[in-house]
Design a protein that fits this description.
The protein has 14 helices and eight strands. The chain is mostly helical. The longest helix is centred in the first third of the chain and has 145 residues.
Length: 521
């Protein structure tokens, strides 16, 4: 126990010494840190003062720069204002010079005007005196003239007017001839160019067709089967189709007849299908007739729709489209009416383009101008009136209605689309091969043309030539003059236009000839 005491004591002494050493070291470190902090604070303050001084100098420099720039800007504005003021003063000086110059010119013109007025006053006074003298001389001469002629003023005036009327009547023919020749040449040249251009642009094949109603049969025995026992098959066929079957001695064919071209087509189609099927009996005839009616109706709608698409006319009522398709089965002088309507639509559109008018409206007018022919077998009246009523009922434009109503009548200037359709209709109808006329109709037309010309008492003889497109009129030379012959020609043209309807134009040539014959012996 006594041996361990020195160790404890040594340990305690060591611990105390260590604690004292640690204490003194900490105190020394604290003094060192305080000294460093103080030094750092002083350095920070010094740096802050330097930075503040730099900021102050920079601010002063920036302020001085701004002040210098502001002075330069003010100096520039002052110089600019000075230049503008100088320019304004220069402009004012120029204006003042111009005003002074104008003032001088006005003073000169005023002096010239005063001189001119004085001269004019002198001339007026001179002419007044001359007129007074002339009036006096005229009165004296008039009195002497009345004294010499023995006529009063009224009688002389009447005689003068009578002579003037005779002279004017003689010259009326030459004036008409002169102006008509000039106007006709210009109008015909322009119209011919427009029509030829339209006809050249629209190149189509002939539209002439002949409607056939003959149906081929394989053998003549088929005729008996068509008639049926006691005629029941043929009676059923006539009842269902509205067509007559003409069975005669013609080998290998029978004829189907009807006033309605559509019914005739239904009958032909029904009969062909019955012959191809081989079963010909009343019940089967009814079925085939119903199918043919439906197929023809579908074909008519399709034909009408195709026509509107071809001409690019849209917005038509479906009933109008159907009636348009019905024209496929109509012919006029062997010309298919639907193809004729399409041609007229194209011609009218091209003519409208040349005249600067609405092409679509012109095509619409041309396509529907003959729509009345689809119903003229069912409704009494002329096809222009029927077509106009039909179009009016389906609210077509007034131009379209009037084109259908007046394309065969005398055209009116206030309806230009009707005139265009009439010209296009004549172009389509008069194309070579488009229509065929019977010899009776041709001869009748020639006689009518010659009869109209022969109605005039001055006409000696009239001849229709060139298929009725020209009339050559011979007038009595002792009853007419060259001037009156021109007036006769004008009157014949007007009478032809009022009394006849014809496609294209008719040329009237009046010939007056005086012959002198002598014999030398």
């Amino acid at each position: 126990m006594i041996q361990h005491i020195p160790y404890l004591l040594v340990t305690v002494i060591l611990m105390i010494g260590t604690g004292a050493a640690v204490y003194f070291i900490q105190r020394a470190l604290e003094r060192s840190r305080k000294q460093d902090a103080k030094t750092m604070a002083e350095e920070t303050i010094r740096q802050a003062k330097l930075e503040a001084e730099n900021y102050r100098r920079e601010a002063e420099l920036e302020f001085k720069e701004k002040e210098i720039k502001q002075k330069e800007l003010l100096e520039q504005q002052a110089r600019k204002s000075h230049q503008e003021q100088v320019e304004r003063e220069r402009q004012l000086d120029k204006r003042q010079d111009a005003v002074d110059k104008q003032s001088d010119e006005l003073r000169k013109r005023q002096k010239e005007l005063e001189i001119s007025q004085q001269r004019l006053s002198d001339k007026i006074a001179y002419h007044d005196s001359r007129n007074a003298q002339l009036d006096k001389v005229y009165s004296e001469q008039q009195a002497k003239l009345h004294e010499i002629s023995g006529l009063s003023k009224e009688e002389a005036t009447q005689k003068l007017l009578s002579d003037l009327e005779t002279t004017l009547h003689d010259r009326a023919g030459s004036i008409i001839l002169k102006h008509e020749r000039f106007v006709n040449e210009k109008c015909q040249e322009q119209a011919r160019n427009i029509l030829l251009l339209a006809m050249q642009r629209y190149a189509a094949t002939y539209t002439a067709e002949s409607t056939t109603t003959m149906v081929d049969i394989p053998t003549d025995d088929m005729k008996g089967r068509i008639i049926g026992r006691e005629g029941r098959n043929i009676r059923t066929f006539q009842k269902e189709t509205g067509c007559d079957i003409i069975i005669d001695d013609t080998p290998g064919a029978v004829a189907v007849g009807s006033f309605s071209p559509i019914r005739r087509e239904i009958g032909v189609l029904t009969l062909k299908r019955l012959i191809a099927d081989g079963r010909i009996q009343p019940g089967h005839i009814e079925e085939m007739a119903a199918e043919a009616t439906k197929d023809i109706g579908d074909f008519i709608r399709h034909a009408g729709f195709e026509a509107t698409e071809e001409v690019d006319v849209h917005g038509l009522h479906e009933q109008l489209v159907y009636h348009l398709g019905e024209l496929y089965f109509r012919t006029s002088f062997s010309q298919n009416v639907l193809r004729h309507s399409i041609e007229v639509a194209f011609f009218a559109g091209m003519i409208a383009v040349e005249l600067g008018m609405d092409e679509r409206l012109a095509r619409r007018c041309g396509l529907l101008h003959d729509i009345g022919k689809a119903l003229d077998h069912e409704i009494e009246g002329a096809h222009p009136n029927i077509g106009a009523d039909l179009l009016r009922r389906f609210h077509e434009p007034p131009e379209v209605v009037h084109a259908a109503l007046g394309h065969h009548a005398a055209p009116k200037i206030d309806n230009p689309y009707t005139v265009i359709v009439a010209a296009a209709d004549a172009c389509s109808a008069s194309r070579p091969g488009a229509r065929r006329e019977t010899i009776e109709h041709y001869i009748k037309r020639m006689e009518e043309l010659e009869a109209i010309a022969n109605e005039f008492p001055e006409v000696e003889q009239a001849y229709a030539v060139r298929a009725g497109r020209e009339i050559r009129v011979l007038v009595h030379s002792n009853k007419t003059t060259d001037e009156s012959a021109a007036k006769i020609c004008h009157d014949i043209v007007e009478k032809l236009g009022k009394q006849m309807q014809f496609p294209g134009e008719i040329k009237v040539t009046v010939i007056r000839e005086t012959r002198a014959t002598g014999i030398a012996k």
